Amino acid sequence: MMSRTVSSWILGSARNSFVLQRRGRLYSICVPNRHKIKWKLVFSKTLLYPGTCSLDNTFSLRKAFRHTSTEEEEFSFQLSPSQINDILRADRRSAATCLQTRGMMFGVFDGHAGSACAQAVSERLLHYIAVSLMSRQTLEEMELAVECMKPVIPILQLHKHPNDVEHREMTSQYFESLRVYWQHLLDLDIEPGFSLEEAMISAFKRLDSDISLEVQAPQENALVRNTALQVAFSGATACVAHIDGIHLHVANAGDCRAILGVHEEDGSWSTIPLTRDHNAYDESEIRRLKREHPRSEEKTLFVNDRLLGILMPSRAFGDVQLKWSKELQHSVLENSCDVGALNIYQYVPPNYHTPPYLTAEPEVTYHRLRGKDKFLIIASDGLWEMLSNEKVVKLVAGHLTELNVQKPQLAFEKPVNLGYLHNLLLQRKNRGITSLDQNVATHLIRHAIGNNEYGEVDQEKLAAMLTLPEDLARMYRDDITVTVVYFNSEAIENYYRNNE
Amino acid sequence: MFLRLLADVRWRGADPKWRSAARCRSASGTAETQPVPLPAEARVVICGGGITGTSVAYHLAKLGWKDVVLLEQGRLAAGTTRFCAGIVSTARPVSIELKMADYSNKLYQQLEQETGVQTGYVKTGSVSLAQTQDRLISLKRIASSLNVSGIPCEIISPKQVAQLHPLINIHDLVGAMYVPEDALVLSANVSLALATAASRNGVQIHERTSVSHVSVQKGRVTGVETDRGHIKCQYFVNCAGQWAYELGHSGEEPVNIPLHACEHFYLLTHPLKDPLANNVPTVVDPDGRIYIRNWQGGILSGGFEKNPKPLFTEGRNQLEIHNLQEDWDHFEPLLSSLLRRMPNLEALQIMQLVNCPESFTPDMRCIMGESPTVRGYFVLAGMNSAGISYGGGAGKYLAEWMVNGYPSENVWPLDLKRFGTLQSSRTFLRHRVMEVMPLICDLKVPRWDFQTGRQLRTSPLYDRLDAQGARWMEKHGFERVKYFVPPGKDLLDLDQSKTFYKPDWFDIVGSEVKCCKEAVCVIDMSSFTKFEISSTGDQALQSLQYLFSNDLDVPVGHVVHTGMLNENGGYENDCSIARLSKRSFFMISPTDQQVHCWAWLKNHLPEDSNLTIEDVTWKYTALNLIGPRAVDVLSELSYAPMTPEHFPSFFCKEMSVGYANGIRVMSITHTGEPGFMLYIPIEYALHVYNEVMNMGQKYGIRNAGYYALRSLRIEKFFAFWGQDLDAFTTPMECGREFQVKLEKGMEFVGQEALLEQKQNGVYKRFTMFILEDHDTDMDLWPWWGEPIFRNGRYVGKTTSSAYSYTLERHVCLGFVQHFDEKTGEELVVTTDFINQGEYEIDIAGQRFQAKAKLYPFSSLFAQRRRKDEVELSGYQRE
């Protein structure tokens, strides 16, 4: 029943002109695309197990669809590792104010092969960074407080979204690991401590190694053990911005992206990318990997524009399948009870000779904010594969101006009388411009999934995309997470004025 | 800032004691000195230094309670009080609110003289405009009410309006009401003046002290925890305004104070070219949803929009009160309305759009009184944007309540205990206040039901009745049927059905009444409050005998109707009690008694683990079989003879109905018609209902609703608690002496007061009026609260009214008093006094002749009942 509706929907939509075009190719002829194609279907050409793919057979098409929705077991059996990494994508975000040091942090995390890793990283990474930045004295105080069973000073004030979820069961384990980390920092005995760049790199690497270690450590609590397994065997890319006054640091591992919107003096808008996408399209990433592995593997490092033919990003948290030795993977999974039920996909990639192939070490960029830097956008690759950097900046800038038009500052410097204001209000009411998205991130996502070839939001397409059944939606669009940070230009300029 | 402008404070000369003593802040801006430490102990701690808190403190001190501490988290009068528009308006539809506003007005008038603090009191008067005839009717009703309360007031023509105010456009007006004594004040200063006077009387005031929670032990307030330490106290008063809800929930023992804040906008302008005169009256244009007052030669105008913006649903600290955003687009309808009313203002320069939070309650009435769960925990909050108008009076009543145990007026309409826990849901409150705030300006017509927060408590038969055309009203969150619209018949839309005249359901209810009289009807009355009281020994009987005025020591299976009286003999509750066994009783009270009665019993029953009281309201569905054929239906269903010989009236028996066993059948109705009440365990409800309807078919059974019930009970002169009866009416005053057993061999609450009344006579008498020259089709219908005139002199007000389909006349019930013609002193009301007068009822200014009766028409009762039985059954409830 379901499958028939689905396939007829696709056919039906093909007749309408708003066909989800780029995606449409996926199940017709798989033309190599300059852009990345995330949602390879079970029957797409890129499969490593071509046996399951039959393009011309509508029956198997239906079946394949059904598999994705109901028959989990068979599904996992048929899936290739690269598909595993593509399905079950889940983004997470977090934002926080540092309470013991200055500044705020914003992170976007793009999970693959399940949401567990992205979830864990979103809950933990900012704490690791905050701890890395703390002074020795603060760390000592915290350690003392824990020893004396006293409440620890708060590290972060998290700015939560109602949709943010939390793994309360894991809190104590996470806290223990964090404590071991700061004990380690205390032992290091480096004063005056890390620079911001060092702190972020250290935090990323430490968290990834903790994820990897926690799953190897014996654990009584089945829930905690299972979660640790899920976290380690799924993956997440991360992009975190740290803003302190005019100092902006962005740490990135993977293919999330952060860009800056700049309002030039001539009124035009320009874009400054703050990150590089770590994937097969990036020359320096290819060079890095070639450097780290023997020459014999040069050809097999990237297959089909994927790391070992499996993973799109070349840096990520978790994904121990690409980090551990085969033996370690076997022994860990053997000792755990019910791998299937946890949706953990066990596979060994072809040409897996010299692990690790994957790292969570971030690349950190620094930017000194200027008065003309108006906003920062951090988003998962779901947005960037739909909209170009320039388009995104244009949209945010447009939203900003429209907002200003919509909300005129009824300032009292130039006195307004009742009649004038009344006319203004009536005009605004008649224009009915209240339909605009209040939230600029929503605005971006609406454009990302609803844009037609003219770059305008096609309501029909938007509606179709938003009402796709959940299992089908994954084939037509990635998860998209967007964080937009506006800068207070006045404060920035004041800073420069006062410091000159 | 405009705040300063609003509260043009020059009171420093008065040198308030708390300020010089406590030095909570320094006037000259030097570094703050250490505040005076809090006392370790006080009799009363008041939380909140707004108008309500300072008013309570002021009145407590006046009544001699001087060991009082008032705590304010910020500065005095810095919350909603400071932002408030400062209009003192007495034009209020509810009588107790009118009294509070009148008292406030008089209090503020002399406050400056009393305290030396400038209050900015200006007697400007107010003009309420009517754009429609219906609005004018509602103004006339208020005017009648104001006039008999001694507040000058007149209905004026549009031309007269133009003379009173230079700027008003009168072209769309049909009339207006002018109240010359209404006033304007600087609300923050009034509050400071009250604080100053209270402080002089010994009240300690501490600013910048916030209460974190109230400590409770054994259901009593024991102290208050603040950010500056603990204060031991016996009484706590929550006057925290919009934070009252949260403060109520902060302790271990939550106190539900159902209120919710909404954003409220008003506009301030620069002065006009020809500044408005100081005494130009405040204009209220309810049809335009706005009010306009003079403000420093310019205007202050705000209103109550149709689409209010609730805020702080998630609790405090979301947004500081001062950071609320102006929202001009939101204000546009009100601005349009303002410019329509005063077109000449177009050129006037804007100064500011003020956004201040106001708290609203689920029924548009403020909340006062003691918590039903925590003794000594008092509340005064939820002023529905009339804090200044009510503040003085409300503070006085609450102070009286605390000092004397009860206020000097009936405040049940404002009592916290009218709400249950169900009204404390934030979702409910958010939705309800969005309906309540616009209602402030809406036309208030009889029989208006709230549309939000509905379908919460329902009978198991709800869907079944709904499918049969039921139209619903709500009481205490419980859905009850008003009437059943027969198939094929349409009623008007909700908005169009608003009327002061004959309503569209007139014939529908008429046929339901007819069926009750001639055949049999079934009414779902599940909403009634039901308690079971039982004990191991005879504690239950002993305690109930003490609490109730009638003799409950009756044989098992008897039902007694009795009042639950207070020390003054006034009705705290009016209920029927069935003796189920030697040691257990089943008590049925009005729906809205659920919280009040529970609290009263908890407070008055002895602490005894062998005595248990249980709220079983939810356990039983109650069906009322009413009409002469009820007996036939029931006996066929139960195979038991139900005739009066076998089942006399006022009997209770558990029996089977259909397949269902254990149905409590009582031979009582709530209308005086023959019939039975069936208390059915809820799982049997549908079965029993189906059986009754099937079996009843051949007797012409049909569903009926509360409007039919109401018509039946009023034509038979049955008073009901909450409407006719309250804590200030005694059985002696409403002809229910037969329900009081003064000689039952043991003392009971209120006995002395009743004995005294028996000897000395009563000062008011519950009387029934039949309107003589009233045309049901053409004339305005009576509602309640209409003034009663005897020989042209005001003697009291009606409390309820209904059309009697049997008498084909309107019947009003009300209390008649006897004021001495010269001194105005209250005299004893005798039977002769009632019988020897010519009566008129004033409906919106029009007087109708009425015939007074002290006893119901015996012809209305079924012939087979004997006279004494009629008297016995002479009770009911709604």
List keywords for this structure.
heterodimer, A: 500 residues, alpha+beta, 7-stranded antiparallel β-sheet, 4-stranded antiparallel β-sheet, 13 strands, globular, disordered N terminus, B: 878 residues, FAD/NAD(P)-binding domain, 9-stranded mixed β-sheet, 8-stranded mixed β-sheet, 22 helices, 27% strand, disordered C terminus
Structural account:
Chain A: Belongs to the PP2C family. Chain A: Keywords: Hydrolase, Metal-binding, Protein phosphatase. Chain A: GO terms for molecular function: [pyruvate dehydrogenase (acetyl-transferring)]-phosphatase activity; metal ion binding. Chain A: This is Pyruvate dehyrogenase phosphatase catalytic subunit 2. In chain A, a hairpin with a 5-residue loop joins strand 1 (90-98) and strand 2 (104-112). In chain A, helix 6 (116-133) packs across helix 9. By secondary structure, chain A is α+β, with helices and mostly antiparallel strands. Chain A has helices spanning 2-15, 21-27, 58-69, 72-78, 81-86, 116-133, 136-147, 171-188, 196-214, 222-233, 283-292, 326-335, 381-384, 389-406, 418-431, 440-450, 459-466, 470-476, 489-498, and strands at 90-98, 104-112, 156-158, 235-244, 247-253, 257-263, 269-273, 302-303, 306-307, 317-318, 363-368, 373-379, 482-486. Chain A is built from 19 helices and 13 strands. In chain A, the strands form 3 sheets. In chain A, strands 1, 2, 3, 4, 5, 10 and 11 form a 7-stranded antiparallel beta sheet that branches. A 4-stranded antiparallel beta sheet of chain A has the order 7-6-12-13. Chain A has a two-stranded antiparallel ribbon with strand order 8-9. Chain B is α+β, with helices and mostly antiparallel strands and 878 residues long. Chain B has a domain at 41-360: 3-Layer(bba) Sandwich (FAD/NAD(P)-binding domain), CATH 3.50.50. Helix content of chain B is 26%, strand content 27%. Chain B contains 22 helices and 40 strands. In chain B, strands 5, 6, 7, 13, 14, 15, 16, 17 and 18 form a 9-stranded mixed beta sheet that branches. In chain B, strands 1, 2, 9, 10, 11, 12, 19 and 20 form an 8-stranded mixed beta sheet that branches. In chain B, helix 3 (51-62) packs parallel to helix 11 (387-404). The longest helix of chain B has 21 residues, at 95-115. Chain B is globular and about 85 Å long. Mean pLDDT of chain B is 90; it is low at 1-15, 20-32 and 863-878. The A-B interface holds A 410, 412, 415-419, 421-422, 425-426, 428-429, 434 and B 269-270, 326, 328-329, 331-332, 335-336, 338-339, 345-353.
